[in-house]
Structures are given as C-alpha cells and as structure tokens.
Design brief:
This protein has about 100 residues and is an alpha+beta fold. Strand 3 and strand 4 form a beta hairpin. The mean pLDDT is about 95. The protein is elongated and about 70 Å long.
Length: about 100
C-alpha cells in the first residue's frame, strides 16, 4: 500500500538529516495518514479512505466529502475516490431530473 493521501494526492518527500557536524544523510518525510470513514450526505452512506490529517481538515473546511469531491480534479483523487465522485455526480443528476 503506497503512502499517498487518497483525496489530496499528498505523498512522501525526501530530504536530508543534517547533523551538528553538517553531515548530510538522506531521509524520508511521510504524510500523517489516517484510516477514516467519511459520510456522504447525498449518497447517505459512509466511505473508507486513507487520508492525511491535512486532507481531512481540507474536507471539513469545504463543507464535507460531497463538496470536496465535486471541487477536486480527478488527477489528484485515487481510483476509489473517483468512483465515489462518479456515483455522486450520477445521484445529483437524478435528483435534478426528479425536481
């Protein structure tokens, strides 16, 4: 399983550990990934994602999972998030037709 946020695309970064003697050794900065269940209001169910703490705050800031998915480009989203986004678009089209 790769260490990439499924909603924001945030992944690992590389850098250096720098000692007091200014010796440099390679290191990896990993995102703070959490397993969370996010609820979709329009689909009325929950979806499990592996999301960074930053991504979770961004989702809450944008008003929930539904708004976040509709605003985010497909390139940033994982395959499972893209699938949820397609379901969401389909549900909103059907709701518009019924209204």
């Amino acid at each position: 399983m790769s260490r990439i946020c499924e909603l924001t695309g945030k992944g690992r970064l590389t850098g250096n550990n720098v000692s007091h003697a200014n010796n440099k050794t390679k290191r990896v900065f990993l995102p703070n990934l959490q397993h969370v269940t996010l609820l979709s209001e329009k689909l009325d169910r929950g979806f499990k994602f592996r999301v960074s703490a930053h991504g979770l705050r961004s989702v809450e800031h944008n008003g929930g999972l539904d708004n976040w998915l509709l605003k985010t480009k497909d390139e940033k989203l994982s395959k499972s998030a893209q699938k949820v986004k397609r379901e969401l678009k389909k549900a909103t089209k059907e709701a518009d037709k019924a209204a």
